[in-house]
C-alpha cells in the first residue's frame, strides 16, 4: 500500500514478503549465523531477535539497521553486501521476530527504509538517580574531551588504514590511538561517538558542581539545549562512522566543534578575560 511522504509505519504494517524473508534466510545462514546464531539468539555477536534486539533497534528506522548490516557486516568481510541483499536480511530478521508478511517487498532504498520503524516507541524506563562523583571539569576531561579527540583525529588519520605495528614498548599513552591492536580503527571511532552520545545526559544531573564550586545550571533552557545538541551530535557521529567513510567523518568534525563551542562561548570562555586568568575560571557556569 502506498505511503504518504513523511508518514511513518512500523514492521506490523506488513512491510516485507514471505519470499523475501526466505531469500534473507539463505543469506543469513551463509554469512551471519556463525556469529549471530542459527536462531538469531546471538553467539559472539549481539542477538537479532527478542527483547535484547528490540531494546536497541525497536524505535529506530530500518535504514539504521540496514546501514549497520551493509557497511559493517559480516565482521570479517564488511562492505560487500548489496542493498537488495541487505533488505532481504532485514526482512528475514522481521520474519523471525514474528512481524507479519505482506504483498509488497521491503524496498532497499534509504528513503523507504527510513519511513519504517520496527516497533513504535514506548515509555522510557527511568533509571535510579545516582549522585554525581565528578565536577563538570572532571567529567569533560575524562569522557567528552578525549573521545572528541578520537573523532577529530579522523581528519588526518584514516581509521580504515592497517594498524602500524608497534616498535617496541610504547610508554606514551595517546587518546588518538587508544585501543589500537585490540579494536579496528573504525570501531574505536564508533566507541568514541557512543561515549559522547551516552555521556551527554550526565551534564543534566542535578547536584553536579563546576570546578569553581558553582552549581551546573541544569535548569536553564540554553544549557538543556546545548546538552541535547551534543547528545544528537554523538548519535550522528555514530551513524556517519557506520559508513566507514573518512571524508564524511572528517567533514562532520566541524559540526562537533561547533556544538562544543556553542556551550563554551556562553559558560566557559568568558569574554574580557585572558586565557588562564583565575577570574575567568571563577566566572564559569554562569551565562
Can you tag this structure with a few keywords?
287 residues; mainly alpha; Cytochrome Bc1 Complex, Chain D, domain 2; single chain; disordered N terminus; Four Helix Bundle (Hemerythrin (Met), subunit A); 11 helices
Q: The CATH topology of the largest domain is what?
A: Four Helix Bundle (Hemerythrin (Met), subunit A)
End-to-end gap? 52 Å
Using the CA coordinates, give the radius of gyration. Answer: 22 Å
Give the low-confidence spans: 1-6, 121-128
CATH top level class name of the largest domain: Mainly Alpha
The assigned structural class equals mainly alpha
The main pleated sheet reads as: 2 strands, parallel
Q: Give the total of domains.
A: 2
Task: Please tell me what the overall shape is.
Answer: elongated
Number of helices: 11
Protein model, in words:
The chain has 2 domains: 9-117, Cytochrome Bc1 Complex, Chain D, domain 2 (Orthogonal Bundle); 136-165 and 173-283, Four Helix Bundle (Hemerythrin (Met), subunit A) (Up-down Bundle), CATH 1.20.120. It has 11 helices and 2 strands, in the order E-H-H-H-H-H-H-E-H-H-H-H-H. The chain has helices spanning 18-31, 33-36, 50-57, 62-72, 83-96, 110-114, 136-152, 185-199, 221-241, 246-267, 278-283; strands spanning 9-10, 116-117. The chain has a two-stranded parallel ribbon. It is elongated, with a radius of gyration of 22 Å. Mean pLDDT is 85; it is low at 1-6 and 121-128.
Amino acid at each position: 500500500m502506498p505511503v504518504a511522504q513523511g508518514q511513518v509505519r512500523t514492521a506490523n504494517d506488513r512491510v516485507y514478503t514471505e519470499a523475501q524473508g526466505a531469500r534473507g534466510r539463505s543469506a543469513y545462514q551463509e554469512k551471519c549465523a556463525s556469529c549471530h546464531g542459527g536462531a538469531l539468539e546471538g553467539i559472539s555477536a549481539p542477538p537479532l531477535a527478542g527483547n535484547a534486539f528490540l531494546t536497541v533497534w525497536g524505535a529506530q528506522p530500518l535504514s539504521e539497521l540496514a546501514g549497520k548490516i551493509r557497511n559493517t557486516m559480516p565482521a570479517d568481510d564488511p562492505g560487500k553486501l548489496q542493498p537488495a541483499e541487505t533488505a532481504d536480511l532485514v526482512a528475514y530478521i522481521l520474519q523471525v521476530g514474528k512481524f507479519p508478511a505482506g504483498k509488497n517487498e521491503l524496498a532497499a532504498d534509504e528513503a523507504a527504509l527510513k519511513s519504517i520503524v520496527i516497533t513504535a516507541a514506548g515509555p522510557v524506563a527511568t533509571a535510579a538517580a545516582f549522585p554525581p562523583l565528578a565536577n563538570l571539569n572532571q567529567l569533560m576531561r575524562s569522557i567528552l574531551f578525549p573521545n572528541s579527540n578520537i573523532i577529530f583525529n579522523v581528519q588526518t588519520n584514516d581509521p580504515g588504514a592497517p594498524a602500524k605495528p608497534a616498535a617496541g614498548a610504547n610508554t606514551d599513552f595517546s587518546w588518538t590511538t587508544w585501543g589500537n591492536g585490540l579494536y579496528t580503527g573504525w570501531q574505536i571511532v564508533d566507541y568514541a561517538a557512543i561515549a559522547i552520545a551516552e555521556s551527554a545526559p550526565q551534564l543534566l544531573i542535578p547536584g553536579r558542581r563546576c570546578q569553581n564550586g558553582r552549581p551546573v545550571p541544569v535548569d536553564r533552557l540554553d544549557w538543556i539545549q546545548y546538552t541535547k545538541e551534543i547528545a544528537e551530535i554523538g548519535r550522528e557521529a555514530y551513524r556517519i562512522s557506520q559508513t566507514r567513510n573518512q571524508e564524511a567523518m572528517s567533514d562532520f568534525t566541524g559540526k562537533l566543534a561547533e556544538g562544543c563551542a556553542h556551550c563554551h562561548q556562553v559558560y566557559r570562555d568568558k569574554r574580557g578575560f585572558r586565557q588562564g586568568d583565575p577570574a575567568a575560571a571563577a566566572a564559569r557556569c554562569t551565562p
